[in-house]
Each structure stands twice: as structure tokens, then as C-alpha cells.
Specification:
Largest sheet: 3 strands, antiparallel
CATH superfamily of one domain: Hypothetical protein, domain 2
CATH architecture of one domain: Orthogonal Bundle
Structural class: mainly alpha
Shape: globular
Helix content: 40-55%
Strand content: under 5%
Radius of gyration: 21 Å
CATH topology of one domain: Endonuclease III, domain 1
Number of strands: 3
């Protein structure tokens, strides 16, 4: 089942015991009232819609994902539909979402679902994790959001909520740690359905209220219990937080090269690619990287295209 935006359990029921108990009810109640109506949260999205959204939302904001998601599901409503198409078409449809290797990984996952699971997204966490291109986060998110299972779902928003509310620091570490995973498991409600609600609710709280900058504590349902706020909001004193530099990077060059190939429906000559970036060494490095990643296929005669196989 896809996790809806309405709680399946009355909040007078037990919401688990241990560390997270004081947090569960207020956060889930807040979610019931304030959750965004997003297409992948609707029952009709199904497990495949949830999986597509999870691939697209990695390092990409919701407003950029929404139009691409709708077009993707209209074109490929089931994994078998995507698997039957060329991987280059997935890269083309990915558009300007960024990190286009995600499109190839989603295509690979769709092919594996079609071959191994009869075209249905598996319900078992271990089977999800065994799909190509799916790591621990995505497996847990699909199992939780699509099937209502009890898993710790740790994205950047959830990690920030837990860092502030429980650990008392402004930001989590740059990379997820074993301590964070242990904390997330300790915070999980015992009830499976409520645990799935908690996963979605804590993520939404981080996205809308407990944001990286300009957090709105006056709107937070657990502000009175937040360790970071109660400590006076001490400034981050850990390793510098990684920025999202883009201009002038190989990522920008790769994006421009791919844009030419996405818009073309025939092989593109080298000269057409040369025009998109002035610096030849960086341009060649970016193109070589795209080829190595399987995003671009070189052809005889200095031609290039999106991959067909």
C-alpha cells in the first residue's frame, strides 16, 4: 500500500516505546494536517510511482521533480514499460533533473523487476536492496512508503531533524554514520503502520519546518522538546558543510553535452558537442566521463548518441 496523508491509526493508540515516544504523536499529528499533496503519496501512485519518486528526489527539490515525474509515469506506467525502451530514452526523459546516472539506474532496476519479479516492485526489503541501483535508503523508503513497513528511512531532512531534536546539534555529519542509524532505529515506533507514518512525517518536518536555513521553530510541533533549541541553538562546529558548487564544474559541462544529445534524435557529430564548451581539455574529460558512465555511446566517424542498450 502507498502511505497516504491520513493516519491509519488513532493517535490515542500506543505509538511505540523508548526514546522516540514523546516525539511520535505530535509529529504525526502535524503531518496529518500539513503534509503536501504530492502525487507519489496518493494511493494510485502504487509502489512503482513511489520508487520513481525516490530516484528523482535524490539531491533534487520537489518543484523540479514534479513535471518530470508526471511525464515519466504517463509514458512508463509500469516497470516493464520502461524496461522495454532504450536506456537512452530514460536519459532523454530525465531532462534537467541532474545526476543523470540515476536515469540509467532506474532503467536497470525496472529491467530487473521485470525479469525477476514479474513486473511488480518487490515487497521484501532484501529483494529491493538486491535490485541494481538501489541502496539502503531507497530500499527502506520504498518498503516504508509503498508498503507501510517498519524501516528507518534516513534522508538529509530526517537526519537534520534527529540531529537537532535529539542530539542537540545544528547539522548532522556530512555522511550518514553508524550512530545516526542506531538512533533512527531507536526512534522507530514499534507498530509497523505508525512507523511508516513516522518516517514520512519526520521527513516532511525537515523539508518544511526544520530546514537547513531559516528554520521556523514557532511552527514546529516538537519545539518544546528540541535539544538544539533548548541549548540556545549553538552554531555548527563540525567539519565544513559541503556546498553544491556547479558553475564551471565538469558537472556543468556534462549537462551541456547531454542537453545536445537529448534534443537530437540522430547521432551528433563531435563538432556540435565542441560548440557547447570553450575549454577543450575539460570538455574532452567530461565527454569521456559520460561515455565511461554509459550515458553516451560513441559511434564510428566521430558521432555520439544516447545509449540504445
Amino acid at each position: 500500500m502507498t502511505v497516504s496523508t491520513k493516519s491509519p491509526h488513532p493517535m490515542s493508540s500506543p505509538v511505540g516505546d523508548g526514546l522516540g515516544e514523546p516525539l511520535h504523536a505530535p509529529v504525526i499529528d502535524w503531518f496529518d494536517e500539513h503534509a503536501r499533496d504530492l502525487p507519489w503519496r496518493r494511493p494510485e501512485a502504487g509502489p512503482w510511482g513511489v520508487m520513481v519518486s525516490e530516484f528523482m528526489l535524490q539531491q533534487t527539490p520537489v518543484n523540479r521533480v514534479l513535471p518530470v515525474y508526471e511525464q515519466w509515469l504517463a509514458r512508463w506506467p509500469r516497470p516493464a514499460d520502461l524496461a522495454a525502451d532504450a536506456p537512452g530514452e530514460a536519459v532523454r526523459a530525465w531532462g534537467r533533473l541532474g545526476y543523470p546516472r540515476r536515469a540509467l539506474r532506474l532503467h536497470g532496476a525496472a529491467a530487473a523487476i521485470t525479469e525477476r519479479h514479474g513486473g511488480d516492485v518487490p515487497t521484501d526489503h532484501a529483494q529491493l536492496l538486491a535490485l541494481p541501483g538501489i541502496g539502503e535508503y531507497t530500499a527502506a523508503a520504498v518498503a516504508s512508503f509503498a508498503y507501510g513497513q517498519r524501516h528507518a528511512v534516513l534522508d538529509t531532512n530526517v537526519r537534520r531533524v534527529f540531529a537537532r531534536a535529539v542530539t542537540g546539534v545544528q547539522y548532522p555529519p556530512n555522511a550518514t554514520t553508524a550512530a545516526e542509524r542506531k538512533l533512527a532505529r531507536a526512534l522507530l515506533p514499534e507498530d509497523e503502520g505508525i512507523a511508516a507514518r513516522w518516517a514520512a512525517a519526520s521527513m516532511e518536518l525537515g523539508a518544511l519546518v526544520c530546514t537547513a536555513k531559516n528554520e521556523t521553530c514557532q511552527r514546529c510541533p516538537i519545539a518544546a522538546q528540541c535539544a538544539w533549541r533548548l541549548a540556545g541553538k549553538p552554531e555548527h562546529d563540525g567539519p565544513p558543510r559541503r556546498g553544491q558548487t556547479y558553475a564551471g564544474t565538469d558537472r556543468q559541462v556534462r549537462g551541456r553535452l547531454l542537453a545536445v544529445l537529448r534534443e537530437a534524435h540522430a547521432p551528433v557529430p563531435q563538432a556540435a558537442l565542441d560548440r557547447v564548451w570553450h575549454e577543450p581539455v575539460q570538455r574532452a574529460r567530461a565527454l569521456d566521463g559520460l561515455v565511461a558512465d554509459g550515458l553516451v555511446e560513441p559511434l564510428p566517424g566521430g558521432l555520439y548518441r544516447l545509449p540504445l542498450t
